[in-house]
Automatic annotation (TrEMBL):
Transmembrane segments: 58-78, 148-172, 178-200
Taxonomic superkingdom: Archaea
Keywords: Membrane, Transmembrane, Transmembrane helix
Bias-annotated ranges (Low complexity): 101-114
This protein's name: Uncharacterized protein
Region (Disordered): 89-114
Length: 212
């Protein structure tokens, strides 16, 4: 494992360990308040994991920090995936429309997958390029079959989780299952967005001259 990753993990543990120790001495759990089953069939307290009935503010703070760190890790994972798994290597050409090379190099002109062609036949991007900003590298979208498969599977997952959420709402209304189905649905939507960006959008790198 990379030393930098180990250092980050140690820093996180150094912060969470004393915080969690303080949180363990918070408010005691309260008693459950159950719904009269003779009146209603919903069972919001049912679940597959035993959880405390009440959390102290310190415990809530620890949970929030853990959730934020998990979100940061997920964002880092998706970012690395988009830049390594589905994007071309720096300087590597990609086939654009008509089989032409779709890479713009230091000259600032892109060839292939034309948007607007100037008098010399070079492809330009007037909505990006100015006197102080120019295109350094351009790769057309790969449109790979893997992207279609990923988006198709994630679409099915999104619909499935949405249907499960709706069925749970109309029946037992169990809180834990609500959370799992909502998490699955939003993560599937996130995967759809990432897949579309990675496989079906061109990669454009620009350089800009700035005065300091």
């Amino acid at each position: 494992m990379d030393r930098r990753a180990i250092a980050v993990v140690l820093v996180v543990l150094a912060v969470l360990a004393p915080t969690w120790f303080v949180a363990m001495h918070g408010e005691p759990p309260s008693e459950e308040i159950r719904i009269d089953q003779s009146v209603s069939e919903i069972r919001p307290l049912d679940g597959f994991v035993d959880t405390p009935n009440k959390l102290s503010p310190a415990q809530v703070g620890v949970v929030v920090w853990v959730a934020l760190l998990a979100l940061l890790g997920a964002m880092a994972f998706f970012h690395r995936f988009m830049n390594r798994a589905a994007r071309p290597d720096p300087g590597e050409g990609a086939s654009g429309g008509g089989g032409a090379e779709a890479t713009a190099t230091d000259g600032g002109h892109a060839t292939g997958s034309a948007e607007v062609a100037d008098a010399d036949g070079w492809t330009t991007f007037p909505w990006i390029e100015t006197d102080y900003r120019w295109v350094v590298e351009y790769h057309d979208a790969s449109d790979a079959v893997e992207g279609l498969v990923a988006m198709g599977g994630l679409t099915v997952l999104t619909i499935t989780f949405a249907a499960l959420f709706t069925a749970e709402y109309l029946t037992l209304a169990r809180t834990q299952y609500f959370g799992i189905y909502t998490f699955g649905m939003f993560m599937s939507l996130t995967g759809l967005t990432v897949s579309y960006y990675a496989w079906f959008m061109p990669h454009v790198e620009v350089a800009e001259r700035r005065d300091h």
